[in-house]
Amino acid sequence: MTFDLDLIISFLPDILRALGVTILLWIVGSALGILVGFVIAVLRRYGPRGLDLALLAPVELIRGTPFLVQIFLLYYGGPFIGLSLDSVTAGLVGLTIYGAAYYSELWRSGFNAIPRGHIEAAQCVGLNRRQTLKRIILPEMTMLLLPSMVNMTILMLKETAILSIISVPELTLAVSALGTKYYAFVEGFAILALVYWALVEACSAMGRYAERRLSKYRFAAT
Amino acid sequence: MTEKPAIKVEKLVKRFGANTVLSGIDLVVPRGQVTCLIGPSGSGKSTLLRCIAFLEEANEGLIEINGEPLGFTSGEYGERNRLPAAQIQKVRSHIGMVFQQFNLWPHMTALGNVAEALVTVRGMPRKAAEERAMAQLSNVGLSARAGHYPSELSGGQQQRVAIARALALDPDIMLFDEPTSSLDPELTGEVLNVMRELAQSGMTMLVVTHEIGFAASVGSKIVFLDHGEKIVEGRPDEVFGKPRHERIDQFLDTYLDRGAATLL
Amino acid sequence: MSWKLFWLLVEASRLTIILSAVSISLGFVLASLVCAAVMSGNRAARAAGRLFVSFFRGTPLLVQLLLIYYLLPQIGLNVPSEVAAIVGMSLCTAAYQAEILRGGFVSVPRGLIEAANMCGFSPAATFRRIRLPIAVQLTIPALTSEAIMMLKSSSLVSVVGVIELTRMAQDLAASTYRPLELYAAAGFVYLVINIVVAGLGLGLEKRMSWGRL
Ligand SMILES: Nc1ncnc2c1ncn2[C@@H]1O[C@H](COP(=O)(O)OP(=O)(O)OP(=O)(O)O)[C@@H](O)[C@H]1O
Ligand SMILES: [Mg+2]
């Protein structure tokens, strides 16, 4: 096995650009997913019952099928219903929809986990609905949901690699292309794995740091 | 052997990190009697009991059960030598323990909980073990609940099953760590009654409790612990009767409602 | 879309199910070993176990599959791509299952183990009679989710040329020019499989439940 570091270095600019695409897709996709997920969760919890049921179906459809199949459906099937997206847009939309389904379930579990008593206590001391949401529910929920949100966000990073299959010019695609060109697959994928690993570890380290900083919001022991 | 005390604790020291929880406890638990350990929260009662059960290893000092060293012996120069695990298990088999949180195994019925050790540890056939377990359960008034899982039993019933589980192994010493602290007042009574009967049958008992009434009426000896030290030790009338040690007075005032204290 | 096409998808899903079932089972065996290593007293074993878990959870399965697919021939193992797929999937799910199992063992309340100690149980008996059954019961929901996750992730092995459900849909979509119907149908088949697995998991959970701890 020839470990060709020079090769990697000479293509560093390409690889860095691809890494930028990966990170951009990851951050934008996660942020949109979290946002849309929140909206879905709020609609399902506070909206009419029919809406809850109407939203249940798509959420479960997304959660019950592989991301790759969803992406294929969107990218290759989309044009047949007048939805022609380029690969990057399709990737981002797919990632957002996929993430929104999972994040909405996390938000829902967060809403359910906050004891009614905390909300009642807030109303007793005279907080209105908005203040209750801002001062009580959201801070408590942030603490509660942080670990699972971080986990989901890490999953989102790993799912971006799948977008290489529909030729989104992200990191995995760039490395595969180099591999094909110079027949250096093993070296390329090994380094690729290390890059993702580093990103994931960095993300979970940040999550742990945030958890420590926010730990004052943790529920008092009961 | 009979003149040896059931439990003898000498200069026991236990630290958790820099926190010294027991600072040189001496204690003798006489055979066939009930010794009650009382004291404020955090005074080290549970820790002492857990050291005697060898669930916790003391840092210094020695413990003897029926005259046999538990865990460590003192060497020629006063150093402690660790005994082999088999020896520890053998000495420990004289002791039964009942926990505040019951600690019944949730995947076994009441009968299964009581029979389990007879089968797994003593190697009894399952059927014989279950017969013996059934007898133990009826002793604590629970034969009708034998087939129930712990999650289907009330706290008081669970604690009685836990007592039956410990008794099934024929211990000659029973340790109780606040057996009624997680029970409602109505359920406390049924557990205390079982303990009372056990005491009358001549079992050696060491009981950590906040039930001062129980301690005063059933205990032959009261030991008062505070900040990891033994402050007072004596018969209930000596310890609770007036004039009282000032710390006992404080304890009764702070930790119990005055009604209970004036009853004494 | 004709029934014939749909039936081809259903037939291809056999391989999806087989690959997933084999990987999940092999992964479970491996996960037990990894979990034992992570929880062992041996520092080297603990470090190795943690590194394994961290790596396979920290990298995309797609990248792992590609790496293994190209690595195996380089070290002289010319195996069919199905085998490479199983190796990759097993390693990945082993890392997740090891974490799930560890979580189960850690969640067994200490008092239950102390009660066993007081009853004279040997460490082996405590493990067999108390820790293992409780940990298994506690982990069934998480293991079911992981099984579903793996079923979905198995779609990635289409990339290394295994003709399973997703790859069949892809090939049929290319030859019939009907991607919309074919991918929707493939998604439907995945959904049905996952609903069945979720149901099995719930049944198992119910059968093993003796109430809460
Ligand atoms: N495993 C442990 N690790 C660290 N510190 C401990 C541990 N167990 C007990 N302690 C500390 O030892 C001290 C005595 O605890 P212990 O549980 O023995 O008190 P106690 O007298 O039983 O109190 P309570 O009446 O509340 O049960 C406490 O300060 C406690 O914080
Ligand atoms: Mg205590």
From TrEMBL, chain A:
Membrane topology: Multi-pass membrane protein
Family, similarity comment: Belongs to the binding-protein-dependent transport system permease family. HisMQ subfamily.
Cellular component annotations (GO), alphabetically ordered: ATP-binding cassette (ABC) transporter complex
Entry annotated with the keyword Membrane: yes
Entry protein name: Amino acid ABC transporter
Subcellular location: Cell inner membrane; Cell membrane
Highest taxon, organism lineage: Bacteria
GO MF annotations in UniProt: transmembrane transporter activity
Main location per the UniProt record: membrane
Record domain ABC transmembrane type-1: where: 19-204
InterPro entries, per the entry: AA_ABC_transptr_permease_3TM (IPR010065), ArtM/GltK/GlnP/TcyL/YhdX-like (IPR043429), MetI-like (IPR000515), MetI-like_sf (IPR035906)
Keywords assigned by UniProt, alphabetized: Amino-acid transport, Cell membrane, Membrane, Transmembrane, Transmembrane helix, Transport
Ranges annotated as spanning the membrane: 20-43, 55-75, 81-103, 144-168, 188-210
One BP annotation, GO: amino acid transport
Transmembrane helix among keywords: yes
UniProtKB/TrEMBL annotation, chain B:
Record's subcellular location: Cell membrane
Residues annotated as transmembrane: none
Domain of life: Bacteria
One cellular-component annotation, GO: plasma membrane
Membrane topology reported for the UniProt record: Peripheral membrane protein
Recorded GO MF terms: ABC-type amino acid transporter activity; ATP binding; ATP hydrolysis activity
Annotated signal peptide: none
SUPFAM superfamilies: P-loop containing nucleoside triphosphate hydrolases (SSF52540)
Keywords of the record: Amino-acid transport, ATP-binding, Cell membrane, Membrane, Nucleotide-binding, Transport
Chief place of localization: membrane
Segments forming domain ABC transporter: 7-252
Entry similarity comment: Belongs to the ABC transporter superfamily.
PANTHER family noted in UniProt: AMINO ACID IMPORT ATP-BINDING PROTEIN, GLUTAMATE_ASPARTATE IMPORT ATP-BINDING PROTEIN GLTL
Record protein name field: Phosphate ABC transporter ATP-binding protein
UniProtKB/TrEMBL annotation, chain C:
PROSITE patterns, alphabetized: ABC_TM1
GO biological process, one term: amino acid transport
Coiled coil: none
Cross-referenced Gene3D superfamilies: MetI-like
Gene Ontology CC: ATP-binding cassette (ABC) transporter complex
Entry's Gene Ontology molecular function annotations: transmembrane transporter activity
Pfam families linked: BPD_transp_1
Membrane topology, record value: Multi-pass membrane protein
Subcellular location: Cell inner membrane; Cell membrane
Family: Belongs to the binding-protein-dependent transport system permease family. HisMQ subfamily.
NCBIfam families tied to this protein: HEQRo_perm_3TM
Name of the molecule in the record: Amino acid ABC transporter
Organism of derivation: Hoeflea olei
